């Protein structure tokens, strides 16, 4: 699995997940329950992961819709 998106904004994560699901790309969200550690402040980013084979297409979908990935 490869990391596709990293963000502290849950709306971007949900939007990207819905778009990718519409394209038939399965995503897995990591660090969902980390808010317990940061006191629900939302300072720890969540990550979207995709299969290695889907990474290129998923990255193209996000790039075409100007969704920032938060990755270097």
Q: What does it look like?
A:
InterPro entries: DUF2007, N-reg_PII-like_a/b. Residues 1-65 form the DUF2007 domain. This is DUF2007 domain-containing protein. The two termini are 18 Å apart. This protein is of the alpha+beta class. The chain has a single domain (2-64), classed as Alpha-Beta Plaits (2-Layer Sandwich). It has a 3-stranded antiparallel β-sheet with strand order 1-3-2, covered by helices on one side. It has 3 helices and 3 strands, in the order βαβαβα. The chain is 38% helix and 21% strand.
Please describe the topology of this protein.
Blueprint: E1 2-7, H1 10-22, E2 27-30, H2 35-38, E3 46-50, H3 55-64
Antiparallel strand pairs: 1-3, 2-3
- Cα gyration radius (Å): 12 Å
| CATH topology descriptor | Alpha-Beta Plaits
Q: Tell me the fraction of residues in β-strands, as a range.
A: 15-25%
CATH class assignment: Alpha Beta
Q: CATH homologous superfamily, by name?
A: UreE, C-terminal domain
Number of strands: 3
The sequence of SSEs as H and E is EHEHEH
Second CATH tier, the architecture: 2-Layer Sandwich
**Mean pLDDT over the residues:** 87
The spatial strand order of the largest sheet comes to: 1-3-2
Shape: elongated
Unreliably modeled segments: none
Distance between the termini: 18 Å
**Main beta sheet, described?**
3 strands, antiparallel
Structural class: alpha+beta
Organism: Paragemmobacter aquarius
Protein name: DUF2007 domain-containing protein
